[in-house]
Design brief:
- Chains A, B: InterPro entries: CBS_dom, CBS_dom_sf, Cl-channel_core, ClC.
- 2 copies of one chain form a homodimer.
- By secondary structure, chain A is an alpha/beta fold.
- Chain A has 27 helices and 11 strands.
- In chain A, a hairpin with a 2-residue loop joins strand 10 and strand 11.
- At the A-B interface, helix 1, helix 11, helix 12, helix 21 and helix 22 of A face helix 1, helix 11, helix 12, helix 21 and helix 22 of B.
């Protein structure tokens, strides 16, 4: 009988035992139900109230942080270009908020104006100098903060969160310090203009918040299972804020459902957390727009023509290929960073990359602005009444625009591959869709100019004959390209079979392109197909494998005829407890000599059960020294119980799964994936023949990847 | 080693053995891979090509059927009100297609005009008589078709499809006859004006189509597993067409994923099937609108105010309560129908209900039109430039409208409760959202009139001060009501934990109300909460329980401290094969005496393995008569193999899961749910102590429902 008296404190780096965790939670529920009085009811309510408190506070917190992060980033970003004469703490929008439309805002001054420099050349030199310098300072401060105070605040955080939700213990990853540094560092990193996004890190921040809040209550201290359910809900809240999509948060919870025993409960909490976070974000409403979604395309045409499938399939192929290339480059960059001298100078590396980024970005018009602004503009259709964004709509500059867009995409691929993994908070979502949107827009502009040049061609006969009516919508091509690139980088099958839907859904909600879901689906499908042909793993899987977290990817595994017997550690090589043979002090020695999580118990090679190290430790310690010579019995099989034996049958685990050794390997993997086990014992006609652990299965699943454990 | 030589033909009413089916498919893959020559490659391609052929043909087929069904229903529906002077086979739209906007269409004549009746009274009598008569004829013909040719074509079909996807065998449900009758009967039933929808039955039609196509290929004849994967994909295509939402189809596949071994494969096929079906529907494009979605609200305002949460929460509560009432009424109706004289007169029943429906419907303006038209109009905001739908926007008729809308909802609840279960094809989706939309609109009109009457009240201060600007959008309240009602009737947790998301998603895509996802989520959550408090099961679960299909609802089960030992059939009550004791002719007798699916094999009470009836049958039959006295051995445990024994060890199942009898019941249920097993064996230190089968678990899960097996 598992009970709280068994010490279940885990160390960082261990994996929790889900079956035990579930059992503890069940015990707790039984205990509550057994108390028939008001007190039992109250303690159940209190349990539930604490959970909801953490969830709602996390939702409100991450909504607020998300909102203020936007404000901070906007201000820091604007500061790189100029300053408000009313006070340096105003951003450009608030600085000019009192000005009538049409009037020139004189309060906002570029740095050149501010220092009253008259010479154009000096002014532009000054301008670019401050632009680059501030970028360096922001990026450098972020790197200093991360390396000094919270090394776990680097990177996106998603791989770790996946591993933690799966049962990995990494408390250092979720401290309040990490929360603070990640949020602050994220604002600095984004404002520095490096090629990174805020989406993944925001999810990490939400998880830190839930974890820190959960430490206030004793209830969660002894239940890693309950804690993980809280983390799942708060990750949903993070996604809800990062993408402005409460539905996206819920779907993320669905992805993680296999891990948890109580599906509906987790989903329901994720639902509430996402909703609360979205409402908080909307309530704080930093830009006064009261719109949740990040990018919105509303003026695209409602219909699409069959010939457009050709460029869209092309975008799918490009997304798949470039996604694979980006993943490969990123892995190479991570390995070079780890094995070279750069490993010792993380801050200098960040400053170096940031100066290169800033210098290049300042030269090209599309890279100078913040990525989110660029994407929003690329998603917009040309509308003469709204003005032309950097000449994108100029029909005379087709080739120039296409060249610039492709150049931007190539530069971004290189920069992103290096940036994603440096010692700063950095998400990969925004850079990915920026690359995709550039390529998509380029494709759209090309298709449009082809159509307007040859309106009578057979292909374009389905277009309206009136040349003033737009037939091809390049803005939508940008959406398409972004979706395809995202599919190529995060890859549906590798992450989870229905990351794909999340992807389509998020893209869809990001853009509001309701009538165009179908083409997006087709393009995403193509990208996935092409990408899978070039390598099965998405970017997060690759990072999990490189850091060797014990995480089972929920992908299909197909054996080639192997059975469990081919991978299991056979009984001869297992450390087992032989019932009736070992005395208590032998057990004590066993526990000292071996660090295993548990031991199978056998009697004359026949399997009796499985006992965990933790329970054994407690039981052995509970006996007096003069009893230590007594033999241990776990079952009363041959009626051998007598005064020379101690009965340890209560320590046996109830929930041990046994299979035959001839079972196909495929099925073994599936049992591990679906039931979230730590080990399976294999028997043949009652005799123990072997054991397979989660670690064995993880090794099996990552065997094809050459850089496994490269960043361990 | 399972191989195709074992007869795995299932009879209707049996459940398939997933583990065996998976094993067969694995064998097939091994065999293909083993053939290294071109031939092996070709046969793999051919396998895959056959699957894709069925999927793509099904997608195209269901898209086309869906499109033509709309045309047929429109024509039959119009025929009840009038006729085209050019020919009776035109519907109103095509009849008047040549007429300029503004001009009166004289080609389309009401029946009164057609027969040239001058007296208003006679004309309106004539009009209503034909309206009711044609309704009777349509409904009656549908009932005659169903009862005579394909009894399985009645009802929605969703409960059966869920059971079949879970492993139930019901080939009669998927014949080409059923396909034809269901499609034809559906058109007649919808046109008859009965309170039913076409969504569920369309999914059934799609499954019939895939099943019929699969029978053309030998590949699927021996693999019920492969067949079910095809059915899952085609069900997705059906949903894609029924709701105009390819994404909805994919999410349906996700719901069913737990059933299948190869998640990504099934999802991918569902993806393609949904996309092909949607493209086909759009290509055929019956109404020339080239829009996929059924209902679209685009002119609602972008923002909402906090005070609106009060009526919306109210709608959630109403949806939960009325949803529960509708389910209870429907169950009562089904039981009365089965136990009373009505059981013998199904056609008369349909005609009777249809005449009552037609008579009532003709009297009330909102019930006379087709439900889909009513819903589309209820979802529309009032717009002076677009005309007023039946006075809904008249501010002077608030109370009249509210009364009429509530009356309509009440009538629809009664009619739907009775109609859903009669011998005609009938879905429950459309009636449910109609009821919800009526109530929602009523709530919206009330809130709006309250706000316009007291614009200065504290609650309404967040509204714009200008009275000409609309603050409350009653059309969106209708969407909200529909979503809440749907949640109350189908209930998220009962169907599947994330039916909820499907629901929000479909509602969301149906209406395009992008900025309002959050309030819809809140309202759906409330409806689920309230509904669950009044009864845990959704409408489909209830029907599955009443017809006692062996289907495991994927809901959380919480035991009260019971273990497997409390529900298992103990070893003393099991029919087991005692190794070394039984001769071959004893086995023969065993197979004759018992109809069990398989038998555990023991030796001196110790578990040796599990053997299925089918394999045993084949093995026993393969021996000559003079060998029948030989003893059977399944293991060579004590080295007892000799000439007096036959070695049957190859018949043992490889994939048998063993657990300890002390395992909590909760975990047993979870293993069944996640691994889709037929049985689990329980052992204690190697000895067989009991067995639990899927049937036991289903009985456990439906124990709380009083009408289990009422319609068996």
């Amino acid at each position: 009988m598992p009970s709280p008296r068994f010490n279940r404190k885990y160390q960082d780096g261990q994996s929790i035992d889900w079956i035990t965790e579930d059992a503890v939670e069940r015990e707790r529920n039984y205990a509550h139900r057994a108390q028939k009085s008001i007190r039992g009811l109250l303690s159940r309510w209190a349990d539930s109230a604490r959970i909801w408190t953490v969830i709602i506070l996390t939702g409100m917190g991450i909504g607020t942080i998300g909102a203020w992060l936007d404000v901070l980033v906007k201000w820091l970003g604007d500061l790189r270009e100029g300053v408000c004469s009313h006070g340096f703490f105003y951003n450009q929008v608030t600085c000019c908020s009192g000005v009538d439309p049409g009037e020139v805002c004189t309060n906002w001054q570029t740095w050149g104006e501010h220092f009253d420099i008259r010479f154009i050349f000096v002014e532009s030199l000054m301008q670019s100098f401050i632009y680059i310098l501030l970028g360096l300072i922001f990026a450098g401060s972020a790197a200093v903060l991360v390396t000094t105070y919270a090394p776990y605040a680097f990177h996106t955080g998603i791989p770790e969160i996946k591993a933690i939700l799966g049962g990995y213990v990494l408390d250092a990853f979720l401290t309040p310090w990490t929360l603070l540094i990640k949020a602050l560092g994220l604002a600095l990193a984004v404002a520095s203009g490096l090629s990174l996004g805020k989406e993944g890190p925001l999810v990490h921040v939400a998880c830190c918040m839930a974890f820190s809040l959960s430490r206030l209550f004793k209830q969660f201290q002894h239940s890693e299972g309950q804690r993980r359910k809280l983390l799942a809900a708060s990750a949903a809240a993070g996604i809800s804020v990062a993408f402005g999509s409460p539905l996206g948060g819920v779907i993320f919870c669905l992805e993680e459902l296999d891990t948890f025993a109580s599906d509906a409960e987790v989903l329901w909490r994720g639902f509430v957390a996402s909703a609360v976070a979205a409402v908080s974000l909307q309530y704080v409403d930093p830009f006064g727009t009261s719109k949740l979604v990040l990018f919105q395309v509303t003026n695209g045409s409602d219909t699409w023509r069959a010939f457009e499938l050709i460029p869209w399939l092309g975008l799918g192929v490009i997304g798949g290929v470039l996604g694979s290339i980006l993943i490969k480059l990123n892995v190479e960059a991570a390995i070079v960073r780890r094995t070279s001298v750069l490993n010792d100078w993380p801050i200098l590396e960040v400053i170096g990359v940031s100066s290169i980024t800033a210098a290049i970005s300042y030269l090209i018009v599309f890279t100078r602005v913040q990525s989110s602004e660029l994407v929003a503009n690329l998603f917009q259709e040309c509308d003469p009444s709204k003005g032309d964004y950097h000449g994108l709509c100029n029909p005379a500059a087709v080739w120039g625009n296409v060249f610039l867009l492709i150049l931007t995409a190539i530069i971004k691929i290189g920069l992103t591959a290096w940036t994603f993994g440096m010692m700063i908070p950095a998400g990969i979502f925004l850079p990915t869709i920026t690359i995709g949107a550039c390529l998509g827009r380029a494709m759209g502009i090309l298709t449009q100019s082809l159509q307007t040049s040859y309106p009578g061609a057979w292909l374009f006969l389905s277009c309206p004959p009136d040349p003033s009516v737009r037939c091809v919508s390049p803005g939508f091509y940008a959406v398409m390209g972004a979706a395809a690139m995202l599919a190529g980088v995060t890859r549906m099958t590798s992450e989870y079979s229905f990351n794909g839907s999340t992807l389509v859904l998020i893209t869809f909600q990001l853009t509001g392109a309701l009538s165009h879901v179908l083409p997006i689906m087709i393009s995403v499908m193509t990208a996935k197909w092409v990408g899978d042909a070039l390598g099965k793993d998405g970017i997060y899987s690759v990072w999990i494998a490189m850091r060797q977290y014990p995480w089972l990817p929920p992908v299909d595994y197909h054996d080639k005829g192997e059975t469990a017997a081919d991978v299991m550690r056979t009984a001869q090589h297992l450390t087992v407890i032989d019932e009736g043979e070992l005395a208590l002090n032998d057990l004590d020695g066993l526990l000292r000599d071996h660090a295993f999580h548990g031991f199978p118990v056998v009697k004359e090679r026949e399997l009796v059960g499985y006992v965990t190290r933790a329970k054994l430790r407690v039981i052995v310690d509970s006996f007096a020294a003069d009893e230590m010579h007594k033999k241990c019995c776990f079952s009363n099989k041959n009626g051998t119980f007598n005064d020379d034996h101690v009965n340890l049958s209560s320590t046996l685990e109830n929930s041990v799964i046994q299979l035959r050794k001839d079972v196909p390997l495929e099925l073994v993997v599936r049992v591990f994936q679906k039931m979230n086990l730590r080990q399976i014992l294999f028997t043949d006609a009652g005799k123990l023949v072997g054991m397979v652990t989660k670690t064995d299965v993880v090794a099996l699943m990552t065997a094809h990847f050459t850089h496994t454990a490269a960043l361990r």
